[in-house]
Amino acid sequence: MRDEKRSAETVIELSKVSTRFGDHVVHSEVDLQVSRSEVFALIGGSGSGKSTLLREMILLQRPNSGTIRVLGVDLQDIGDDEALALRQRWGVMFQHGGLFSSLTVKENVGLPLREHTRLDDALIDEIAAWKLAVTGLKAEVGAQYPSELSGGMIKRASLARAMALDPELLFLDEPTAGLDPDSAGGVDQLVRKLRDLFGLTIVIVTHDLDLLWQVADRVAVLGEGKVQGIGSMSELSQMDHPAVRMFFDGPRGRAAQAQERHLADLEAGRKTVRPSSKAK
Question: Alpha-carbon distance 80 to 222, whole Å?
Answer without folding.
Answer: 31
